[in-house]
Design a protein that fits this description.
The chain has one domain. A hairpin with a 2-residue loop joins strand 1 and strand 2. With about 260 residues, the protein is mainly alpha-helical. The protein has ten helices and two strands. Helix 3 runs parallel beside helix 5 and helix 3 crosses helix 9. The chain is globular, with a radius of gyration of 17 Å. The protein has a two-stranded antiparallel sheet.
Length: about 260
């Protein structure tokens, strides 16, 4: 039954990515946290396991996203090369920081993060460009912050990198493409970090590699890969605004569930 539920999580994450362009981590982390709760996994392991597993799935899903954008020649690799260094260091730092945060506090922080994402989706105002891209050092610093927060939350970073790049006068098409490319080093570094900090952690379920739960990883990867094209297909046939509002309500329910549990 747990495998079936994890397949459903993957399907929902894949469809939301194809339909709304929302990274799967924002769904995968809270959904896995709820499942692990029902399995009575210790709170100090539960959130770290959900985040580490989410990052591992993003390693795979980000590659397909990068390939799709690269086929359209939309990725500015000169920007990616600069930001990739920062997000990789930030991703490792985020995982190391998670090692010093208690599971219950991490749960509360993630709940607030979901509320912020839901608010961003609700207002969805176009960000006006105010400046050009900063110098390399500043770019790497910003990328490091994006990588650290993304790794700590188990997401690909698009909710932060796209607004930043748009603010720096990068077209939305290129901003999304660059964001997909830097999602890969975020996920790789974060996954490595969560494997390291969870290597000898007590209370992990069987078939775990550090803080990556392999059955959930495989189930989510399979289902999300199959259902992402379904989401893209629906995007051209269903009122996206209605679905977007439904998704916002879904995120708020998840956030409240995590805060109150």
């Amino acid at each position: 039954m747990d495998i079936v539920i994890m397949l459903c999580i993957g399907a929902l994450a894949g469809m939301s990515a194809g339909l709304l362009g929302i990274g799967g981590g924002i769904i995968i982390v809270p959904a896995l946290a709820i499942i692990f709760e029902t399995q009575q996994i210790d709170i100090d392991v539960l959130m770290h396991l959900a985040i580490g597993t989410s990052l591992a799935t993003i390693v795979i899903t980000s590659l397909s996203s990068v390939w799709a954008h690269q086929k359209k020649q939309a990725i500015d690799w000169s920007v990616v090369r600069i930001m990739a260094i920062g997000v990789f260091i930030g991703g490792i730092s985020g995982a190391m920081l998670a090692n010093f945060i208690q599971g219950i506090d991490l749960k509360r922080v993630f709940s607030i993060f979901i509320f912020l994402i839901a608010a961003q989706m609700f207002y969805s105002k176009k960000i006006k460009a105010h400046r050009k891209l900063p110098a390399k050092t500043a770019m790497m610093s910003v990328a490091g912050i994006i990588g650290m927060i993304s790794s700590l939350m188990g997401v690909g970073g698009g909710s932060m990198s796209v607004p930043f790049l748009t603010w720096c006068n990068v077209s939305i098409r290129k901003a999304v493409a660059i964001s997909s490319a830097i999602g890969f080093p975020i996920a790789v570094s974060g996954t490595i970090g969560f494997i390291i900090i969870g290597w000898d952690a007590p209370g992990r379920p069987g078939m775990s590699l550090g803080f990556v739960y392999l059955p959930a990883f495989l189930s989510i990867i399979i289902a999300s890969t199959l259902f992402a094209p379904v989401g893209a297909w629906l995007a051209h046939r269903v009122p996206v605004e209605l679905l977007r509002r439904f998704f916002i309500a879904f995120l708020l329910i998840l956030a409240l569930r995590m805060l109150l549990s």
